[in-house]
């Protein structure tokens, strides 16, 4: 149980929420008499020096940034062995709650929210702080529409020497940037990508990428283009859609260069929509001038700026003297007649015969020593063929040898495969038995064996975050629940295989998750009273307080049970009782009541 007063100043009032690393409480600063939000790490993380160093460092880094769209950090402290961060308390709802209730948003509303998010991130980026987990759940919207970004718990400062935080390297799968999903460092453009997803969700009421599990969603972020948001909401202006799709570019260099640039694009998008091209007014026709036979060079260059389009010219009026054919027309007609006669002559002499025959190879005509011509037919080219052998299942060396024996060229490639041993041919492009020309290339694929992936360290993280991270790395996950006296409920106690080992992608990783400080209720129901009492006496964490002897009036099927046989069990819970079964997990120190069949 958390203390009700921290450092004699901050009064804890009620729990507001809980995340993977900490709980957030509504509190009150008794010195300044104002409400505050107090973040306190989970108890089992209080003993992790690396986590505490990150916790304090990132809190100090976030405290250096002040902006109307960021939640302010007031204080960072320690009370005994409990560390805490005191933040501004913002009354409002999360953007995720608004999206669930009201999406799709009207375009002006979504743009105003997106612009405020981008401006807040720009302030953080200028201070060297990258959020890395922008999502609607981490954005608070007040009643008057003000936006505040919170939860920099995943944030990374440029001053930090730590690597990624355990369990949150990938952020949230629905909003993760492709480069983060591939394990590369997050940059300001990673936050911009997440803002693009948030804009998309506000305007369409849906996410651009969905899947059956986090791995499927992450792979779509990496490889698939987002569906255009106007497909789901035609009211989105085309200019706004272009801004969103630019933010969602796979290549970070293709996104907006800064969050401020994104904010300005959103602020000015309406101007981009309404911007019109100004056409120069029509020039009045000028008096006719004699043509200049040598125009200046600059007049021959097309100007890049818009020019007025002149009015169509009026048809020139011929003089009556020009109505006849004239000498020039007669000369042109004579040239055309001569050309036609020349073509007819050439065709009649067979000059064009080679151009119109179907067979491109004609017999060549040569002169014999006696002067007589002889025709020699060309020798046809002979094509040598061979058969493609079966390669699948052979080793790479055997496949090469088999192809070379058949006078074919090996063209191997390789890929990882869980089911085929390393060095064995998986597939071939040309089916065996196909007849091909000698020296043809034959492509085939050789197995590299399974892809070995390093197991991430998820010990100490919350169950859902740990499972998501392991699945995103390509592992199957098995969850085993067990009690633990110090690890909070739903947090990972240990894992198998251990972190940093490289194992085949797709293998199973088992995580052991804490049920909290509980004990297993032993198998006493169905035993005799004496056996049950002895077992409970030797079970740490349970206290037998009462034996309830029950007669025929209280036990259905009374005759099924032997005298003094335990027929039921319960534990005290305040002023009532909670029924128990053999094997149930119950809080340590539970007080037990056994129901026993009476003797007759």
UniProtKB/TrEMBL annotation:
Residues at which ATP binds:
39
Positions of the UniProt region annotated as Disordered: 281-317, 364-383
| Ranges for domain PASTA | 382-448, 449-515
Q: Which InterPro entries match?
A: Kinase-like_dom_sf, PASTA_dom, Prot_kinase_dom, Protein_kinase_ATP_BS, Ser/Thr_kinase_AS
**Bias category Pro residues: which stretches?**
287-296
Q: What is its EC number?
A: 2.7.11.1
- What does the record give as the reaction this protein catalyses? L-seryl-[protein] + ATP = O-phospho-L-seryl-[protein] + ADP + H(+); L-threonyl-[protein] + ATP = O-phospho-L-threonyl-[protein] + ADP + H(+)
Does the keyword section mention Electron transport? Answer: no
> Any idea where the Protein kinase domain is?
10-270
Q: Where are the transmembrane segments?
A: 328-352
- Provide this UniProt record's keywords sorted from A to Z: ATP-binding, Kinase, Membrane, Nucleotide-binding, Serine/threonine-protein kinase, Transferase, Transmembrane, Transmembrane helix
Q: Where is the composition biased (Polar residues)?
A: 364-377
Which terms in the Gene Ontology molecular function aspect does this entry carry?
A: ATP binding; protein serine/threonine kinase activity
Q: What SUPFAM superfamilies is this protein classified in?
A: Protein kinase-like (PK-like)
**Claim: 4Fe-4S is one of the keywords in the record:** no
Put simply, this protein is called non-specific serine/threonine protein kinase
């Amino acid at each position: 149980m958390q203390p009700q007063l921290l450092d004699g100043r901050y009064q804890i009032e009620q729990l507001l929420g809980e995340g993977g690393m900490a709980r957030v409480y509504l509190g009150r600063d008794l010195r300044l008499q104002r409400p505050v939000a107090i973040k306190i790490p989970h108890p089992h993380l209080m003993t992790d020096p690396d986590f505490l160093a990150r916790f304090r460092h990132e809190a100090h880094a976030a405290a250096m940034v002040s902006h109307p769209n960021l939640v302010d950090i007031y204080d960072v402290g320690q009370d005994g062995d409990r560390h805490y961060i005191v933040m501004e308390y913002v009354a409002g709802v999360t953007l995720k709650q608004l999206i669930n209730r009201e999406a799709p948003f009207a375009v002006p509303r979504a743009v105003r929210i997106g612009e405020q998010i981008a401006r807040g991130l720009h302030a953080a980026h200028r201070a060297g702080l990258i959020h890395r987990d922008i999502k609607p759940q981490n954005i608070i919207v007040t009643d008057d529409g003000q936006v505040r970004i919170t939860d920099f718990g995943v944030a990374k400062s440029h001053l930090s020497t730590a690597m990624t935080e355990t369990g949150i390297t990938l952020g949230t799968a629905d909003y993760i940037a492709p480069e983060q999903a591939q394990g590369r460092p997050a940059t300001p453009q990673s936050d911009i990508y997440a803002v693009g997803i948030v804009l998309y969700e506000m305007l369409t009421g849906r996410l651009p990428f969905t899947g059956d599990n986090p791995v499927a969603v992450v792979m779509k972020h990496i490889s698939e283009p987002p569906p255009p948001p106007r497909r789901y909401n035609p009211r989105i202006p085309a200019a706004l859609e272009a801004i969103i799709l630019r933010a969602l570019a796979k290549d970070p260099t293709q996104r907006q260069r800064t969050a401020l640039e994104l904010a300005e694009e959103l602020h000015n998008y309406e101007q981009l929509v309404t911007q019109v091209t100004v056409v120069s007014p029509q020039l009045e026709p000028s008096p006719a001038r004699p043509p200049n036979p040598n125009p200046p060079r600059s007049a021959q260059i097309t100007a890049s700026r818009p020019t007025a389009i002149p009015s169509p010219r009026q048809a020139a009026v011929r003089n009556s003297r020009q109505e006849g054919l004239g000498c020039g027309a007669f000369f042109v007609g004579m040239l055309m007649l001569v050309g036609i006669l020349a073509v007819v002559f050439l065709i009649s002499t067979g000059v064009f015969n080679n151009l119109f025959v179907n067979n491109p190879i004609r017999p060549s005509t040569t002169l014999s020593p006696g002067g007589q011509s002889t025709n020699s037919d060309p020798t046809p080219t002979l094509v040598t063929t061979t058969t493609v052998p079966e390669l699948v299942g052979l080793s790479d060396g055997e496949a090469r040898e088999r192809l070379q024996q058949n006078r074919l060229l090996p063209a191997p490639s390789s890929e990882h495969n869980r089911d085929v041993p390393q060095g064995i041919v998986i597939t071939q492009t040309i089916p065996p038995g196909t007849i091909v020309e000698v020296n043809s290339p034959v492509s085939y694929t050789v197995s590299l064996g399974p892809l070995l992936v390093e197991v991430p360290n998820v010990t100490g993280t919350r169950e859902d975050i740990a499972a998501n991270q392991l699945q995103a790395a390509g592992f199957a996950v098995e969850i085993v629940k067990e009690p633990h006296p110090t690890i909070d409920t739903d947090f990972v106690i240990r894992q198998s295989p251990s972190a940093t080992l490289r194992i085949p992608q797709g293998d199973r990783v088992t995580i052991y998750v804490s049920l909290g400080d509980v004990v297993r209720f032993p198998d006493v129901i169905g035993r005799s009273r004496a056996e049950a009492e002895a077992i409970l006496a030797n079970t740490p964490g349970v206290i037998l307080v009462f034996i309830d002897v029950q007669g025929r009036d209280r036990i259905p099927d009374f005759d099924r049970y032997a005298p003094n046989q335990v027929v039921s069990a319960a534990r005290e819970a305040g002023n009532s009782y909670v029924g128990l079964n053999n094997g149930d997990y119950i809080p340590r120190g539970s007080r037990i009541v056994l129901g026993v069949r009476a003797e007759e």
